């Protein structure tokens, strides 16, 4: 079974960390979107096999960050996948770009809740 997760970072400015996030996602055959930058929140949404997802998150947490939080890890129904999105992270300019990408997949409410935008 696949998993999906939302991770929040205070910021990601370091080019080596950006590359590491993408390379690790490729290695674990995870896919998703990432919004890099500062100030503000960086969101990485990844989906892939359970063991790869947990190892990806473990390695991210082992890196030095000012702040990183895993907000949600959910089991994924086959009909709620990220579609044909290739392995690795697609960089976006704004968090709203992630929302727009997830909307046609029916995952916008899940993402908005994880981000704290939806009523609890």
UniProtKB/TrEMBL annotation:
Domain Small nuclear ribonucleoprotein Prp3 C-terminal: 6-72
Annotated InterPro entries: Phi-like, Prp3_C, RWDD2A-B_C
Matches recorded under Pfam families: Prp3_C
CDD domains per record: RWDD2_C
PANTHER family: RWD DOMAIN CONTAINING PROTEIN 2, RWD DOMAIN-CONTAINING PROTEIN 2B-RELATED
Name of protein: Small nuclear ribonucleoprotein Prp3 C-terminal domain-containing protein
